[in-house]
Amino acid sequence: MVEGHYLASGFMVEILDSTLREGEQTAGVSFNSDERIKIATALSKFGVDIIEVGNPGVSEDIKNSIKEVSNLGLKTPLLCHSLATKENIDLVAQMNTEWIGLFWGTSDISLKYKFNMPRAKALEKITEVIEYASNYGLKIRFTAEDASRTDINFLTKVYNTAKAAGATRGSIADTVGNLTPRKTSELVSGLVKSTKLPLHIHCHNDLGLATANAIAAYEAGITLIDVTVNGLGERAGITTLDELAVSLKKIYNVKNGWKIEMLPELSAMVERYSGIFNANHKPIVGKNVFSHKAGVHTSAVLKNPLTYEFLRPEEFGRERAILVDKFAGTAAVKHFTSKLGHKANDAQIKEIISQIKNRNRKFCTEFDVIKIIENVLGISRENTRNAQALVFVTANHDGYINDLKNGFAKHPEITNCLEIAGEYDLCLHAKTDSVRKLNLLVDKIRSMENVQKTNTMVILNG
Asked: 40 near 20, Cβ under 8 Å?
């Protein structure tokens, strides 16, 4: 089928989330039992179609956590990852999950260096373990590991063998991340024609193409795509949940029950639990995604956001930000001045813009902009009442967070201190009776021992 067919029909496809299995294979990541339960519960609420809960053979704590998750009574089917051994299959059978995910390396390099066996022997082994798992009544997903480097004719035999042995689904693993969208399309299209086994795909991101490859697989007829929250996984990770879900929903009109408004919440949760934080420009959930800076952009967006937005921030519980610095134009400065509750004539706006653009500093913060505006308008900052800000703080080390919180508690102007997920560790609410005092307080915070960096956002209407 051609791409247009899918674009028109909203061809259905499912999502399997592997944050609790593939995600935990990220360097330095290990979830505890409580975190696993919260992540699984959130994923189920979001509406993923299958949750891969881990491999019980890895460790005792993972095995116990899988049991705890399986006892939650989630509506979402659960899948256990498993080595292709009878011992591992026996263990999975005790986990009370609907699915088992068996995998076997099928490329020549895997057969030679991992198993030291010929292709014919590998087919026998695949048949043996699938038939064994079938005796437990488990739904079986068989993954051809390193499928993207496996001879296509042999790969077809692998999936047909798996189906004959009792596998319910097959998975194409781009284990080393060497696929491109075109190669993915050719591979999936060929396999869809040559095997009747419903196929999934698992794309690694070594070339930064995981989401693009997953989309190409969808266009070629794949039935399910593996993802993780924030794209966690071995090496460079795999396809990220937010990018894929939003692309399928917005571009391809895929009908599903995915609650995309939950994506920032899911992302922040996994950031905190994993210790791996998103870049500010990360699509969908990044800090800067709905921010507009250049003068031409801000002017148009203030008239109609669709001029520079394909996605609406409100759909994700986000807010649009109009930034003011040396790139700002008249519309942005007027907008910012108005939000402060001030009125300025054209000459004053022109002077404000001139001073902003000619500042001899690398950055122009909101404090700097407010100071310039009030100086130009002749407003006494000392008489500005109820000056408030949110101050985001990153600590030098996790162990210093409690020390910092204790230090902040000594300042009565800091009315609240919250631990948060994301790039920063803490969010402070600061309230003073003038902008000058607010500036002095922020300077004190920046100079505190163990404060690595801060970011201050002035509350314009408190």
From this structure: yes
